[in-house]
Amino acid sequence: MIDPRLLRTDPDGLKRSQEARGESPELIDQLIEADEDRRAAIATFENLRAEQKQLGREVAQATDQTRPELLAKARSLAEEVKQAEAGSGVAEARFTELMMLLPNPVFPDVPRGGEDDFVVVETHGTPRDFAAEGFTPRDHLELGELIGGIDMERGTKISGSRFYVLRGPGALLELALTQYAVSKAVQWGLTPMLVPALVKPEAMEGTGFLGQAAQDVYYLPADDQYLVGTSEVALAAYHMNEILDADHLPLRYMGYSPCFRREAGSYGKDTRGIFRVHWFDKVEMFTYCRVEDSVAEHQRLLGHEKDFIASLGIPFQVLDVAAGDLGLSAARKYDCYGWVPSQQKYREITSTSNCTQFQSRRLNIRARGADGVGPVATLNGTLCAMPRMIIMILENNQQPDGSVIVPEVLRPYMGGVERLEPLEAAQA
RNA sequence: GGCGAGAUCGCAUAGUGGUCUAGUGCAGCCGCCUUGAAAGCGGCCAGGUGUAACAGCCUCCAGGGUUCGAAUCCCUGUCUCGCCGCCA
Question: Is A290 considered catalytic here?
Fold first, then answer.
């Protein structure tokens, strides 16, 4: 949700944002009209209500002689009030419905266009030259199977396509990544949070996942609950309907949870291995801060992501994602893409969004400061999405014999193991 | 899953159909007094919407209903607490 006053103060800016996203600017005109209708209906209702209240006082104080006449008047007025109330309810609902469709206005300097129109902001590290080393790199699934770390077949047997099992060194690698990520987050001053992966509709709606992303969300009709696609949902809803103390901002959290995604509409895309799966675990960063601090905070989250990826030795790029590929809630989004040797290209490993007031308005989260109660901004960023990071580590650290060097920073969390060795044929 | 009790402006409480425009205490803020502090005294002290600023209106967990009129009565939901059952 955006600030409704923008409809009156900056309709042109909103239209420009819609165009940049490739969405219809007509929605803005519809909203302006709906807003006017709504305000008029509310004014009518309020005036009648005031009248009714006054009349009520008169009835209470009336004598037995005057009461019957006043009551007759009150009865007809009550009918009018009822109608006006219904009218304002309809107008309000119509306005809110349209409002919930409107994406967060993008920042003016966000690249225009769609999925392929991102701008590469930075490139870090250099991809290994496997040709010079004299061998062709295996992909992550082949490596994962060689070392006995990934079992795709049984994942599929248990749960269907896009499910996997991490076993042995694969499981240990994920657990090590988790512990390493958590320890970094704590060093940076984030509060670690273990949050539910099953949430109410308000939480999903409030974070913006029931809009264009709704088809990607698992829903449990028997309980009217959703499985989250990211712990961002629970971390945002954590302060739902609260007024925060502005002196305590920014609030910086780290969430760890399983993530569930239906991946509808991505049939046939990235079907091999664990790149695109229905379930994975993720360590996520989440900040509540003053709106005017959100741009700096966004850079801070991006900085943490870069720091983390670089410390694992993965070559990567930072992308400024184009307006058409932002999702409902983001005003700007940076993705980090890591190098995948088997594909000879960079693929997404992290994503950080500045949602400004979009989520906090929907979730009714504000902050009280010296100048009263005002909006807050929310931001989120991936610290470590396990399967993708495992892919990066396996592929970039592989050796000709199919073994994989464990990044130094992870060794303390893996009992000092330096290398994941291929299983003997008999063990496989 | 069954039965019972609850949810009031930061906290604690009062309020069983009309002057509730929600009382009181505590905490907090401002002022007076004081060398300073405490005490005492006076004032302020929830959010939303709306306005140039007022006013007005909305909100007593949420949503419906009864009524001329609902914090108060009825229904549904959410959550909390207690007891019983089941359970990792």
Answer: no
Q: For position A426, what pLDDT does the model report?
A: 43
How is domain A6-101 classified at the CATH fold level? Helix Hairpins (1.10.287)
- The H or E element containing residue A151 is strand A150-151
Residue A169 pLDDT exceeds 60: yes
The CATH number of domain A119-420, selected from 3.40.50.720, 3.40.50.300, 3.30.930.10, 3.40.350.10 = 3.30.930.10
Single out the residue of A414, A424, A419, A428 nearest to residue A399, CA to CA: A419
Inter-residue contact A382 to A350 (CB < 8 Å): yes
Report CA(A86)–C1'(B76) in Å, whole number: 20
- At residue A222, the pLDDT reads 79
Tell which residue, A183, A122, A132, A118, has the closest CA to residue A310. A122
How far, in Å, is the CA of A245 from the C1' of nucleotide B18? 40
- Distance between CA atoms of residues A242 and A368, nearest Å: 10
Q: What are the domain boundaries of chain A?
A: 6-101, 119-420
| Share of residues in chain A with pLDDT > 90 (%) | 62
Nucleotides of B under 7 A from a protein CB: 18-19, 46-50, 56-58, 64, 68-69
In this prediction the pTM is 0.92
- Yes or no: say if A10 and A98 are a contact pair by the CB < 8 Å rule: no
pLDDT level of residue A387 (50, 70, 90 thresholds): very high
Most confident of A12-26, A44-58, A198-212: A12-26
Check if A388 is active-site.
yes
Separation of CA A424 and C1' B88 in angstroms? Answer: 38
Q: CATH topology of A6-101 equal to that of A119-420?
A: no
Give the active site residue among A351, A360, A362, A366: A351
Residues at the strand B interface (Cβ < 7 Å): A 4-5, 39, 42, 45-47, 49-50, 52-53, 55-57, 59-61, 71, 74-75, 77-78, 81, 89, 243, 366, 368, 372-373
Spatial distance between the Cα atoms of A157 and A164, rounded to a whole number of angstroms: 9
Task: State yes or no: is A347 an active-site residue.
Answer: no
